[in-house]
Amino acid sequence: MRRILVIIIPLVLIIAVVFLVLKMSSHTMPQQLKGGSVPSLLSQAKDLEAQGKILEAKNVYVKLIGDFSSSRDMSSWQKKVEELNIKLLFSPEIIPRTTAYEIKPGDTLSKIAKEFKTTPDLIIKSNNLANDLIIPGKKLKVWTVRFTIMVDKSQNVLLLKTEDEILKTYTVSTGLNNSTPVGTFKIINKLQNPTWFKAGAVVAPGSAENVLGTRWLGFNIPGYGIHGTVEPEKLGQQVTQGCVRMLNTDVEELYTIVPVDTEVTIVD
């Protein structure tokens, strides 16, 4: 019995010492090793995206931003998060802030969009529909929370937000001599390929002189709104007559997403 104890006691002590050393090492281990290295997390994110697991891929980039906030790659990771946000928005995947709505007899896309305060265009795009024909009994992915917009004139950026999350950042142009009004407004009308009614002339849609570009989202303050541009090279500058200008492809994207009555806050 003594011989057995002589063997067991040192063995137990060795195991205890090894456990203690490992525990102490875990407290001094660099954060990047505890949470995964940058290369391994990037590889994981790319693999997930390739597999179509967009939400999971986004979460990995969010982890990168949280764990390695001093990295020089922060801005590229943030851009990737925003890119994946739009992919999620336009995909059929049911995610938080969305619901699988079962189509009822008598439903139309406009009726459903009005009920959930979204747009028919977004329902069409996020469900890969060819047109506005819908069939009772089928299910649709529908966004269930409100979008808001913030325009920062000092940075010439427009932020598309929902709750406390920035979904995407767009570069815009704002008013010359700080002429874009500051405050909180509402979008009250939306137009595709708008005609520009300027003093003494009517400029047709598609004209190289039509400064409104391909879309118009008008505010509840006459003469002001968000629109496209025929001068993309001037984006990022204060050059407009007071409106917010966007790249045509960007304003078309925004037009699809935000409904009438969306709140727009403009700050200096």
Distance linking N and C termini: 84 Å
Which descriptor suits the 3D outline? globular
Strand arrangement, major sheet: 3-4-5-12-10-9-6-13
SSE string, helix = H, strand = E? Answer: HHHHHEHHEEEEEEEEEEEHE
Average pLDDT figure:
88
Oligomer class: single chain
The biggest sheet, with number of strands, parallel, antiparallel or mixed sense and barrel status, is:
8 strands, mixed, barrel
Q: What structural class do the secondary elements suggest?
A: alpha+beta
Runs in which pLDDT lies below 50 for 5 or more consecutive residues are 1-34
Strand content: 25-35%
Q: Helix proportion of residues, in percent?
A: 25-40%
Rg, rounded, reads 26 Å
Number of strands: 13
Number of helices: 8
Topology overview:
Blueprint (H helix, E strand, L loop, with lengths): L1 H27 L2 H4 L3 H13 L3 H14 L6 H16 L8 E5 L6 H8 L3 H7 L12 E5 L3 E6 L4 E6 L2 E11 L7 E10 L3 E3 L2 E3 L11 E5 L5 E3 L10 E3 L3 E3 L1 H10 L5 E5 L1
Parallel strand pairs: 3-13, 5-11, 10-12
Antiparallel strand pairs: 1-2, 3-4, 4-5, 5-12, 6-9, 6-13, 7-8, 9-10
Helix pairs in contact: 3-4, 4-5
Any overview of this molecule?
The chain has helices at 2-28, 31-34, 38-50, 54-67, 74-89, 109-116, 120-126, 248-257, and strands spanning 98-102, 139-143, 147-152, 157-162, 165-175, 183-192, 196-198, 201-203, 215-219, 225-227, 238-240, 244-246, 263-267. It is α+β, with helices and mostly antiparallel strands. Strand 3 and strand 4 form a beta hairpin. The radius of gyration is 26 Å and the shape is globular.
